[in-house]
Design a protein that fits this description.
The protein is of the alpha/beta class. It contains 12 helices and 9 strands.
């Protein structure tokens, strides 16, 4: 199997160009389009439920000004994310995804790492799940709780880092030292040297969020391990076309 055949397509917040982001409709569409993974974001409600939404506040996607950590699941379920879609829970996603698609779970807040680990173990989906976060302390906490879980270090969009090789080397070194599975970098950070250095240290690269044809083609040619994109079908077409 060559590098192109190994490359995975990761649906960013589900098939979010075709359905409201981070909803069951977007996740079902990603499964229909045969994405390899669904990328999604989790927070914890006031009554301890793990819910899926990118922002800590519900306003951008529901037009209701509310903090997830201050609202109960019942209150959150009353909101409309678009197309009549409700804010899903992690358990609801697992119910439709298990055995069909991998999960790339981005942890957006602290305080519920153990709950996530327990759910993944109970559902027996550790092998098909990647957990990512900008909060490396959360990843290290998860690593102590369950060393088998694949962890990905999310990295920022700082302009200086895009230009600096020393910054890229630091990202890779931190990932190696923490024994993480992958780096999920802002896509403009990725160049050939970065990929070679990461792969030489058995670190996978899943850039985000890659939507333009030119960026998708470039990253395919750089032999990244996967692409996080809103455009699942187009990424698949370009992957199949690339020599």
């Amino acid at each position: 199997m060559n590098d192109k055949e190994k490359m995975v397509i990761i649906a960013h917040r589900g098939a979010s160009n075709l359905a409201p982001e981070n909803t069951l409709k977007a996740f079902k569409k990603a499964i229909e389009l045969k994405a390899d993974y669904i990328e999604f974001d989790v927070h914890q409600s006031n009554d301890g439920e793990i819910v899926i939404m990118h922002d800590a506040n519900t306003f951008r996607t529901t037009r209701h000004l509310g903090s997830i950590k201050e609202m109960t699941l019942e209150e959150l379920k009353q909101l409309d994310c678009g197309d009549g879609e409700k804010i899903p829970t992690l358990q609801e996603l697992i119910k439709i995804a298990k055995g069909k698609i991998g999960l790339n779970c981005e942890v957006k807040a602290r305080g519920f790492a153990k709950q996530i680990v327990n759910i993944l173990k109970e559902e027996e989906i550790i092998e098909s799940t990647i957990i990512s976060s900008f909060k490396h302390d959360v990843l290290l906490r998860i690593q102590k709780l369950e060393p088998r879980i694949k962890l990905a270090s999310l990295e920022p969009t700082r302009t200086g880092w895009v230009r600096s090789w020393l910054s890229r080397k630091k990202l890779i070194r931190v990932t190696i030292n923490n024994k993480f599975y992958a780096i999920n970098p802002f896509f403009k950070l990725v160049n050939k040297r970065f990929v070679i250095k990461a792969h030489g240290n058995n670190v996978k690269i899943f850039p985000w969020t890659v939507n333009s044809d030119s960026a998708i083609k470039k990253l395919i040619n750089l032999s990244v391990d996967g692409i996080i994109t809103n455009k699942v079908s187009r990424a698949r077409e370009l992957l199949n076309q690339t020599d």
